[in-house]
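Supplementary notes for students who missed Thursday's class. We covered one full example, reproduced here. Read the sequence, then the structure, then the short commentary at the end.
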Amino acid sequence: MQPVSILLNIFWILIGGAWMAFGWLIAAIVMAITIIGLPWARAAFNIAVYTLLPFGSKALRRDEVTGQPDIGTGPLGVIGNLIWLMLAGWWLALGHLVTAIILAATIIGIPFAWAHLKLAGIALWPIGKVIVPA
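Structure (token representation):
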């Protein structure tokens, strides 16, 4: 990770990244407890780490990275994402959206607001995503 990414991630944690990563962690734990939610729990844990340290990484569709479709990027992935959206995706996206609006009120918060908006999109449709270095 480059020094600029490290510095941005430190600021990110201090001004809102930690609480949203905690939200993703709670969603992952709740999904894991239900047993049937284990596929969503795995995705939520991965994105919780990404939410804690978003600068220097990016989220891509798994089939774009591997070049091969899989269960998370096909029709079952769409069904999984729709279930996720109803159970946890909407409130995580709302948390990212509210945080982005608050951060966008300041000039220095605009890059962090933009990162929250990207994470809000991921919160709505996380299955089939993979986190890779930028």
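Commentary. The longest helix spans residues 3-33. The first strand starts at residue 57 and ends at 61. If anything here is unclear, bring it to office hours.
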